[in-house]
Sequence to fold (276 residues):
Amino acid sequence: MKSFHLHLVSDATGETINSVARACLVQFEGVEPVEHSWTLIRTPGQMDKVLAGIEATPGLVLFTMVNDRLRSALQDGCRRIQVPCIPVLEPVIGALANFLGLQSRGLPGRQHELDAEYFGRIDAMNFALTHDDGQSSWDYNDADVILVGVSRTSKTPTCIYLANRSVKAANVPVVPGCPLPPELLAVTRPLIVGLTKDSGSLIQIRRNRLRLLSQTDETDYVDPDIVRQELSMARRLCAEHGWPVIDVTRRSIEETAAAIIQLLARHRGDTATIDK
Fold:
């Protein structure tokens, strides 16, 4: 493994720069970055500490800074130290400014302001937690999306991810011998989506879950024939009600959520994919 120092400098939470760095690093095999995260850098004194840290462990610098003075200080310092310094947002902000004929406001952390959109995400997060695993079925019609599927098909983490996109998502387990809540079958507003998974992959995940709980795997929960019957029953259920089904076997949570958001756009009659 090739190891190198990677400095991520941000005037906000660092969420954007971390996401960009990870998206790029996965394209390279055999490398192991030693990450140094410098967040909420908003004063010259803080920038001095950042440059001292970079000088102590030189390496590639990626940054998201909207303040001209601090950005110049970082770039000048990196030139002095002789390390590459890359502004990951500058090309996009510049292109937008040219296209819109406007000047950016240069305010750090604006995407995290306590505005209506922020509180919408918090509301959606509370909704997902309150309506996890078949809970609080009386107000399912307030949901944007309801996910159904057998145990361990990533329903809960997908709901949490959707909530971070301001999508109110509930999830309902499909359990053999247990009827679905009548409130689910009575909804008129939400999009209902079935999640399924390859039986082999599902069994392995369930076995790992049982081991974490120090429980025996001599149970119907991981019996191959019964698991296949569960999955088949869930698929038939979705087909009977006309609910779309997403196979999450080789999908990340992000990919599953993106597919659901596209389905939600069509369900709402939008002409383009929503982006919340």
